[in-house]
Design brief:
CATH superfamily of the largest domain: tricorn interacting facor f3 domain
Number of domains: 4
Radius of gyration: 28 Å
Keywords: Aminopeptidase, Hydrolase, Metal-binding, Metalloprotease, Protease, Zinc
Helix content: 40-55%
CATH topology of the largest domain: Immunoglobulin-like
Distance between the termini: 17 Å
GO molecular function, one term: alanyl aminopeptidase activity
Family: Belongs to the peptidase M1 family.
Structural class: alpha+beta
Enzyme class: hydrolase
Oligomer: single chain
CATH class of the largest domain: Mainly Beta
Bound molecules: (3S)-3-amino-4-(1H-indol-3-yl)butanoic acid, zinc ion
Cofactor: Zn(2+)
CATH architecture of the largest domain: Sandwich
Length: 847
């Protein structure tokens, strides 16, 4: 398959002035009639053929200005030669037949348990009707839906409805990827919303009967998001209704279709009994994210898919700000950085590395990545730091006024910042165009009067980009004196050269706190003693760096345990103990400080330090580390658990969730030394899913929990979203020697519905998340995951391709493992009929 290049961009030949669609729904033979009012595009002078995209469509009729036209479609669309087209505006009418029930790829119009729904981003609309399916073609849509189902929804405002039909008009010009249709036997959880300017909006969350009592938190999150966007960004909602629908079969998390968001049901439905605190937090963040797209994505969209970070990076940045405001900025930042390092740094350091704005792709679905989303958000965070809060606010106001109703580019975005703040962003743009995580080395000198920090940046080669220029790196710095007082409050240094020094007057040698708040997505390299790390863990006023100091202590120790058989000593144990029982600190922060580095993270760190990671040894030593901590904290753990009990009814707020997270972290440690007694009791006493899962995890990690697994299944067998946890936990936490066996057994479970993406991820994704199990020396983990990806690929290539990233870390490991992964990649590559999606991923990973 051919790659598509950014440099080949041309505007579309025609403008679409209006779209009218009529759907006659039937599971195997839905008819879609489309009327497109078109005109030549002055941006493409001359006469051009009209090319409409279309895939898997049975063309029933085609008319041009009312007259029948004979034109046979090919595999990817339909061309009406320029010779047939009039000079001015004209109308094209098509009628096609499609098969929603046979659509297992979950792109276009498909069925999920008797309900019709759509997923059009990125290129799904071409599976519904013939159309210029590209984001820079924006048009108002009118839609009529006819079907034998009580609820018939589409984008925009409702304009009429009767038995078996409904009509919708979306006045806001939009690209086809934001089109949506839902039809089903659904019930609504509804609430009114009055916008800042007084517009009444009807909010509805549509779910299957029986799920309506699990929508309250999503609705509350939506209302808070709408208010926040008004207050913080001055952005109001712009239609009379806002609908959200929960769907069980969905490839990703959710989709921001104009006025009709469609969600994976696991990111909508929540009750204290069925959802964990993490689920609640994720629901809040995803509801906000999709809502925020109404301005950053929908009103202003992307010119082409290379500009994907324009909407995704900005919208992630906005949802992170929102969650920080709703909860704790410190805790949110730590969680975001954990995710960034686990997913984006991993991607950036391997064969799948690509720039935040890629310049070529084969299948755009493969570019909904941590780099586009999470690094895209980090780049905006750096911009904001560099231009200041006021500059950022001015730039965003200008962006919304200048580009409303347009399909914009990263150049447009940066120009807005330049115009609003006067700052030249030529060098900054490299963050968008160059892949890879910069490594920043730091040295310090103190001569009795001046303290000097020297930074050196290295931008490692990535696929297709052997050499790179220096980046603009904002480094937030604070200085402490030796008794822990801050002598330099947070100051942003701008590193713009390969090597650069910064000087500070200092009569005593200060202790630096560098990269506060994780002010840039880089790897910081500095020789630091355990004493200095413990000092920063105790005294740093920057919560991120305080946590980072504890993290670095733990990572240094675990690395020494793995490489030289070191044992956990009092420097780490005592430092963590002090934080754990420091009641002046937020419990959520204390819980994060107690979390040990992950195995994959350790493997990456060892590899970066020139050591070939042994997954089994990392697993064993990490366990030994947890046991040592459990023994050190042991006598005080029952008291801590008791003190953190929440007496009243469950509330999902950050304060209560933070207390539960520390309580569960303490229970997890206690389970390693009390034979599982406390966790078994906690499991029986749990009245919410957070504590039920917390106790179960503690038992499974300690090699127990079989009785609880049986009880869990018996209680929750009918609940798909809860059962996904049951499948995932026992695989993710299985002993490395048993992980493959447990997975195989669960793939034979009657409820392993592998065509459902959530269930597939809960089983096969959980195995690839079990680091030592997946990378087992036998190669059985690699084989099993590859077998299942090959089985899923013909039905759902998008999900198969996404999950293939499990293999992207192979260059870190020993020659045997490298050989086994390469063999699986070669086997996949050689499979006849492999999809473009999986084919591209496998090709890139093979290198
Ligand atoms: N903009 C959406 C990304 C998306 C997607 C969602 C569901 C299924 C398939 C999809 N392909 C792309 C989601 C978001 O970022 O908000
Ligand atoms: Zn998004």
């Amino acid at each position: 398959p051919r790659a598509i290049h950014l440099s080949d961009y041309l505007p579309y030949t025609h403008l679409v002035e209006e779209v009218a669609l009529v759907f006659r729904l039937a599971p195997k033979a839905t008819r879609v009639a489309a009327t497109l009012r078109l005109a030549p595009n002055p941006a493409r002078p001359g006469r051009h053929d009209l090319r409409l995209d279309g895939e898997n469509l049975r063309l029933l009729s085609l008319r041009l200005n009312g007259a029948a036209l004979e034109c046979a479609p090919d595999d990817t669309g339909l061309t009406i030669p320029a010779a047939h087209l009039p000079d001015g505006p004209f109308t094209v009418e098509t009628e096609v037949e499609i098969d929603p029930e046979g659509n297992t790829a979950l792109e276009g119009l498909y069925m999920s348990r008797g309900m019709y729904c759509t997923q059009c981003e990125a290129e799904g609309f071409r599976k519904i009707t013939f159309y210029p399916d590209r984001p820079d073609v924006m048009a108002p849509f009118r839609v009529r839906v006819e079907g034998d189902l009580p609820v018939l929804l589409s984008n925009g405002n409702p304009t009429g409805q009767g038995t078996g039909w409904a009509e919708w008009v979306d006045p806001w010009p939009k690209p086809a990827y934001l089109f949506a249709l839902v039809a089903g036997d659904l019930v609504a959880h509804s609430a009114p919303f009055r916008t800042a300017s007084g517009r009444e909006v009807a909010l509805n969350i549509w779910v299957r009967k029986g799920d309506e009592d699990r929508c309250a938190y999503a609705m509350d999150s939506l209302i808070r998001s709408m208010r926040w966007d008004e207050e913080v960004y001055g952005r109001e909602y712009d239609l009379d209704v806002f609908n959200i629908v929960a769907v069980d079969d969905f490839n990703m998390g959710a989709m921001e279709n104009k006025g009709l968001n469609i969600f994976n049901s696991k990111f909508v439905l929540a009750s204290p009994e069925t959802a964990t605190d993490d689920d609640f937090a994720r629901i809040e963040a995803i509801i906000a994210h999709e809502y925020f797209h109404n301005w950053t994505g929908n009103r202003i969209t992307c010119r082409d898919w290379f500009q994907l970070c324009l909407k995704e990076g900005l919208t992630v940045f906005r949802d992170q700000q929102f969650s920080g405001d709703m909860r704790s900025h410190a805790v949110k930042r730590i969680e975001d950085v954990l995710l960034l390092r686990a997913r984006q740094f991993r991607e950036d350091g391997g064969p799948l590395a690509h720039p935040v704005r890629p310049d070529s792709y084969v299948e755009i679905n493969n570019f909904y990545t941590a780099t586009i989303y999470e690094k895209g958000a980090e780049v905006i965070g750096m911009l904001k730091r560099l231009v200041g809060d006021e500059g950022y606010a001015k730039a965003l106001d200008l962006y919304f006024t200048r580009h409303d109703g347009q399909a914009a580019t990263i150049e447009d975005w940066l120009t807005v910042f330049q115009d609003a703040t006067g700052r030249d962003l030529t060098q900054f743009k490299r963050w968008y165009t160059e892949a890879g995580t910069p490594r920043v080395k730091v040295w310090e000198e103190w001569d009795g009067a001046t303290y000097t920090l020297t930074f050196e940046q290295e931008n490692p080669p990535t696929p297709g980009q052997p050499e790179k220029g220096a980046k603009v790196i904002p480094i937030a710095l604070g200085l402490l004196n030796p008794n822990g007082d801050e002598v330099l409050p947070t100051t942003v240094l701008e590193l713009t050269e390969g090597r650069q020094s910064f000087r500070f007057p200092a009569a005593t040698r200060p202790v630096p706190s560098i990269l506060r708040g994780f002010s840039a997505p880089v790897v910081l390299e500095r020789e630091v003693s355990p004493e200095e790390r413990a000092f920063l863990l105790a005294h740093d006023t920057d919560p991120f760096n305080k946590w980072e100091a504890g993290r670095a202590l733990a990572k240094d120790l675990l690395a020494r345990m793995v490489t030289d058989g070191a044992a956990p000593g009092p420097d780490w144990l005592d430092a963590i103990a002090r934080v754990t029982f420091d009641e002046t600190l937020d419990p959520a922060f204390r819980a994060l400080a107690l979390r040990l580095p992950g195995e994959d993270d350790m493997a990456a760190t060892l590899h970066a330090g020139g050591v070939t990671p042994d997954p089994a040894r990392i697993w064993t030593e990490r366990r030994r580390m947890a046991e040592a901590l459990a023994k050190r904290l042991g006598p005080q753990l029952p008291g801590l658990i008791e003190a953190l009990a929440e007496p009243g009814p469950f509330t999902p707020d950050a304060r209560a969730a933070g207390r539960r997270s520390l309580r569960i972290a303490a229970l997890n440690l206690l389970t390693r030394i009390d034979g599982g007694r406390a966790a078994q009791a906690a499991y029986r006493a749990a009245n919410n899913m957070t504590e039920e899962v917390g106790a179960l995890v503690a038992l499974l990690e300690a090699g127990a929990g079989q009785e609880e697994l049986v009880a869990f299944e018996a209680r929750w067998a009918k609940d798909r979203n809860v059962m996904d946890k049951w499948f995932a936990l026992q695989i993710a936490l299985a002993h490395p020697d048993r992980a493959v066996g447990v997975t195989e057994a669960l793939t034979r479970h009657p409820d392993f519905d592998w065509k459902n993406p959530n269930r597939f991820r809960s089983v096969i994704g959980a195995l690839s998340g079990n680091h030592a199990g997946f990378h087992h020396a036998s190669g059985a983990g690699y084989r099993l995951v590859a077998d299942w990806l090959l089985k899923l690929d013909p039905l759902n290539p998008q999900t198969a391709a996404r999950m293939s990233t499990a293999f992207d870390t192979w260059p870190r490991y020993d020659a045997d493992r490298q050989g086994m992964v390469q063999a699986e990649l070669a086997r996949m590559a050689a499979t006849p009929g492999l999809s473009r999606d999986l084919g591209e991923m496998v090709g890139r990973m093979r290198g």
